[in-house]
Amino acid sequence: MQYQQFKHCGLNVALNMLSGKWKPIILYHLFHQQEMRFTELWRIIPKVAKKVLLEHLKQMEAHELIIREEKHTFPPEVYYRLSERGKALGPALSALELWANEYAADEVTELKQRKKVTA
Amino acid sequence: MQYQQFKHCGLNVALNMLSGKWKPIILYHLFHQQEMRFTELWRIIPKVAKKVLLEHLKQMEAHELIIREEKHTFPPEVYYRLSERGKALGPALSALELWANEYAADEVTELKQRKKVTA
DNA sequence: TGAACAGGTTACCAAAAGGTAAACTTCTTT
DNA sequence: AAAGAAGTTTACCTTTTGGTAACCTGTTCA
């Protein structure tokens, strides 16, 4: 067997930073759109509570995955975008996505259908 | 930017299957040792409660990441090993590990030190 | 007879994660 | 003066996750 080159320390650190119900979607959008405003994210993500979205963004900022930029215009505008550290996650996230589609395709399509039904 | 080839559905499925306090360690040991008995895992992982370890193993079995094999000897022996789906996670886990060591090295070493101190 | 062992269950509890709804701030627009 | 907008905070509640400790099952061995 190859691919045994992981220890659980690094893995734990990475998974901790990714754990949170809405973080995959947040990352997804930031990877595809460069930068987004708070309300834009809030509107685009199905049913997050403002408070929860904010908590997630704060955590991700604390983990230095994203960068928060506040423009002191009025009404204030706050932009979020990926940091270098965040961008560097790309390959790993692609690898997970690839695995899900190759080896857990049933669960993926199941999830998509559940979303169609409920949304 | 490259590496944008992920949607959040597959990513969600993958991260859900990996979420659980002790799953990284469990995977780590199964990747390195082929198969392990329940008690062996229980003893090797610092401070898991039997109940919790069992819950994690059951979830992973339900997700078809691992395979449970019971031998009806006495005292009974139960072996856990990776399924094909589980083994296929290797590259993605390596990628996460790699990322953690390259881009979040400080958190990784911090975690290692905390373990030394408390264990 | 009864302790010991491996794997598992039960009842019960504490902490963390996620959610709802309302209010606050600071300015602009009407 | 009143209403509105963007981002944030507060108080409160429910669900999920992780944890403790005792107990059960069958067989082997002293």
From TrEMBL, chains A, B:
<dbReference type="GO" id="GO:0003677">
    <property type="term" value="F:DNA binding"/>
</dbReference>
<dbReference type="GO" id="GO:0003700">
    <property type="term" value="F:DNA-binding transcription factor activity"/>
</dbReference>
<keyword id="KW-0804">Transcription</keyword>
<dbReference type="Pfam" id="PF01638">
    <property type="entry name" value="HxlR"/>
</dbReference>
<protein>
    <submittedName>
        <fullName>HxlR family transcriptional regulator</fullName>
    </submittedName>
</protein>
<keyword id="KW-0238">DNA-binding</keyword>
<keyword id="KW-0805">Transcription regulation</keyword>
<dbReference type="InterPro" id="IPR036388">
    <property type="entry name" value="WH-like_DNA-bd_sf"/>
</dbReference>
<dbReference type="InterPro" id="IPR002577">
    <property type="entry name" value="HTH_HxlR"/>
</dbReference>
<dbReference type="InterPro" id="IPR036390">
    <property type="entry name" value="WH_DNA-bd_sf"/>
</dbReference>
<feature type="domain" description="HTH hxlR-type">
    <location>
        <begin position="9"/>
        <end position="108"/>
    </location>
</feature>
<dbReference type="InterPro" id="IPR001845">
    <property type="entry name" value="HTH_ArsR_DNA-bd_dom"/>
</dbReference>
